[in-house]
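Entry for the shared binder. Reason: the reviewer on the internal report wants the predicted structure included alongside the sequence.
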Amino acid sequence: MLEYNIIYLSIILGVLLTFYNKRGDYKLFYILICTFMIAVCGLRKDVIGIDTYNYLYYFTNPEDKSGFYQMYEADGMEPGLGWLNSFFRIFISNKYVYQLCLTALSQIPLYIFFYKFSDNKFLTLFLYTAFSIGCGVYFLDFNAMRQCLAISFFIWTLLAYMNSDGNIKSFKVLLPFVAMVLVHKSSLMVILPFLMTKMNFGKKTYVLVVCSATLIGFVMNYFFSYLEMAFTLFTGGTFYTRQIAGNGFNVIMLLPYSLICLVIIIFSKKDELNNLFFNSLILSMLIQGVMAFSGNNIDRMCAYFYVLGYIAVGNFSMSKHKALTVRLPIILCVLAYFTYKFYVSLSLMTESGHAFIPYKWCFE
């Protein structure tokens, strides 16, 4: 637990320093934390994360057709990761060096993006470790390495898009976008928050979406057993219809996310809401409600939106237009609840077979 505690305490210190001194940049401290987070994820033992061993075996034994991802590839898995692995094998053969390189490629773009666009980069970084129904997106990279790589390409696409003044035909925009789709085709859902910004929703509409999503979550939870039976009868069951109990999920877990969204809506002006970051937060809220029956697997669908939604929360916490009496309580509540989530998620993920605790370095 020492490694996780260092990450947590360092980020919390950064949050408090930033809130105390808005003019402070703390760039070196931020870089040190991000570097340590990359090391913890990239240099973990292959027993941490259910799929870690399979990903590393896919890299070191590409010709073994009995391997999990080798068979998945034969069934039509997107070719992007296989092509990237072939490139890596030109230079490296050690599986842990590969894992570290893949982790750096997946996480560095996010840390750059948080630094550039979040007014409280440390709070955004904290949410990256804990804000989700299951485990935070950071810990998702301990298992869903292919999807996290796709998220990285999505962030590169966004950075290129913003640097090219919104020119979607730019080669620098198209290249990472195509790479994203070749790694994980479900990533195409990232166009949704862009479409939402075109609709120019009002505050009442946002409130309606949040309340409806929460209500749908409760309804879906109640009728889950019937939904599961229907999916099993007509489709044979899917990845997103596993037992809620088996995923450690309770629909009450939706409420903190609903409250965060509502507070931001109530205390913000309309023109502060209709942007890529807040719309992504709203989309993750909507998906959480509609897909409540899938338990922790919601995180797989929401991850693309979470990483942008974190910035909306960070920016709200530092907004000069919000009274301290509004911002301070929400920051304290967010820190308190997601501290609880940070540690509970580690325990739940360990119990479900991910072996997060105790942490083990690859060289141990």
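Summary line for the report: The chain has 18 helices and no strands.
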